[in-house]
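Quick question about two entries, pasted in order.
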Amino acid sequence: MSNPETISHFATCPRGLEALLSAELERLGAGTVKSVAGGVAFQADLRTCYRANLESRLATRILRRLATMPYRNEQEIYDIARALPWSRWFGASKSIRVDLNASRSPLKSLDFATLRIKDAICDRFRDDTGGRPDVNTREPDIRVHAYLDAANVTLYLDTSGEPLYKRGFRVQSVEAPLKENLAAGIIALSGWQPEDTFLDPMCGGGTLLSEAAMIGLGIPPGAARGFGFERLDDFDADTWKTVRDTALGAQNRERRLSIHGSDLHYREVEYARENLRAAGLGEVVQLKQASATDLRAPSPQGVMVMNPPYGERIGEKAELAALYPQLGDWMKRHFAGWRCYYFTGDPELPKGIRLKASKRTPLFNGAIECRLFEYKIIAGSNRREKP
């Protein structure tokens, strides 16, 4: 590295959000930004690393790169890991966890490779300090990540700790909730601005609503949680205080927003209400229990974003086959002037909606390939009726 104050980092994110994350990291001060599948490589000093953890709405983890070296087998991976000065970054009293991901690796057992990295760290600590860290797979002080491709192993220190989509305030969860950073990415792709009306008519636990509210008020997404970098030996408390105070000082919690949410099920509405209250957003979002197709546009123009259910069982699929055309008719009748977005892993949805999508953006919800469909609703029909 030409500048000793900058360190190589890698930010992971849901696939499909890499370009947005690159732009976000540049705004936060990152340099030499380069997006690849599943994340963004960048250069950052401690201040920018702290900002990325606190203020990134899209990243899953911020990883500090320690080394990238060629390997052929597990023994060489062990040797590479053991050569690193682990006691420079954290003490033997800290507990550790090692996670490994791979793509096209020739190794037969990734579990064994993970074990060898853990052994290498502990053996190096014994050499340097006479002690060794304990392993804690549930709540470790320090997380070490490794990535194997066909030829190289890269080792990282996790500066985030818990994944960054865990904002620190959720108290209730619904079945298959949308991750917060994916929700923030969907909102960014919709082009919603705080002066616009925002509607989620199938809000579930309220993830899209809380992310929109935090964006609108300028609330840092990590304001209610701690981070892994606070447990590293080079943690700079003064720099962290400056970063945090600056970000919190930029909030505008008095701003009036027009954000509306609803759900067919009473339980989901109450879950959303509890989550919003826990985040200090209970008075920001208007919630009610209602069927989506009973709703009317709360303003002449706005942005609607929803994550409709998609069924796995035959009965569910039959219900949805009947629901999707109703949603298309409902939008045409009551949401002229709106931009409407459907995020779904159901390839049948665009056929059922029976409207022409103006944009289709591929995104991944974990391992599930999904699409974000954009519909610009105009008054009247978007196509000529058949005689």
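Here is the second entry:
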Amino acid sequence: MNTENVTKEESLDPEDWQLMRNLGHRMVDDMLTYLETVRDRHVWQPVPNEVKAFFRQPLPMEAQGAEHTYRDFLQYVLPHPMGNIHPRFWGWVIGTGTPLGMLADMLAAGMNPNVGGADHVANYVESQVLHWCKQMLAYPDEASGLLVSGGSMANLVGLTVARNTKAEFDLRQDGIYASDRKMTLYGSTETHSSVQKAVELLGLGGSAFRQVPVDKDFQIDLPELESTIARDRRGGCQPFCAVGNAGTVNTGAIDDLEALARICQRENMWFHVDGAFGALAGLSLELRPLVAGMEKADSLAFDLHKWMYMPYEVGCALVRHEEAHRKAFALTPDYLTHADRGLAGGKIWFSDYGVQLSRGFRALKVWMSIKEHGVQKYAKLIEQNVDQARYLAMLVEDAADLQLLAPVPLNIVCFRFIADRYDNDTLNEVNKELLIRLHESGIAAPSYTSINGNYALRVAITNHRSRRDDFELLVEEVVRLGNTLLDDARFCRRSPG
């Protein structure tokens, strides 16, 4: 064979493996130092204009090399994070990650499997993780499950199975418009927006989601729920699902899940629980009674990157009825036929239980993290976060310039700075500016919400690095900034009289 004119074949592997090995060791050392010294840095700082400008550079056509690329990462990326690994990050409900979880993601990327199906070990790792999740939350062992990107996708999975199972026709074949009756589902006004998105994506229309008022504790009003279901039945609708909240995103409120389970059983409705972070309170013997009834759900959604502190991204959907779960998603063309032997063999095909055929090895960081720490350690950390929330609530109630705006049943504290001589609109503006200054100073990163028309500083504690003195500092700074802002001419409106 004449090889003189054959083009040299190339790959993306390094020409010098030792140089890449050295660079990899530096990366690991740099990132472990970055985690070790996190308390020495600001929580968050605005991204400088020169950094934003750097990310408008043109598409690289020629190689820049691994060393150069890593230097750019150190200069332009690493110093400007969201901040959620910091001990004083309490915004939204965002977890913190761990050193081994970070390394596990590197190992998973090195193996680089597609965990959609076929007979390879990553599927067995995810299967074990799912069994562990069922054990942790007292969910039936025969249930099916799937690791997903997060709670939003987990809600979509559960509600898809609910819709298809309760439809009075072949929904996958004929579509939602084949229904003779409008399918309706129910949740409180505090239900997460991902449920609304799921309802819209499922073709039901936003009006199909009946948002039921809440009581003084921000739990779903059960008599109003039952009245709404009855009214819809009389109007010719088909109530098919109720969503229970195991920890609402605004206040951490937990619906009466036992009562919701009974209502759904009586009404022949699917019972879905959105337990994005609150479901994991079930790991604690002390807190488990708060989520009693969750184990009766037909489907359960929760995040492991929130209150189990895993690196992003990994959530979980569990479905009590495996056959119904598979029927909602399974589609097997010739090129994906499951074999009895060979690589295409194996019984575990996760692509039959969700939207994704291409799926990353999310399970490895969960598997390694649970093995590293043990579930009892996670339970202690969850209890610690709840104790910290109660401590913060006590500090707020003891401060004359602060007002607690909602009960604290779990790990979320909503409060605001107050001054009697200012009207509510002014106080709302003061608290908005106060939050921004907390962020821009790098002191702390709570988030925000509105509670009964009051702008609230919202502290969601899913952080294994936080200490009590972090919350003491937060209260001191809120009071200091609030009083500073009251002297600002922009906030000079006073309450009538």
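Reply: The mean pLDDT is 95. The chain has two domains: 14-44+81-98+374-497, 113-373. Hope that helps.
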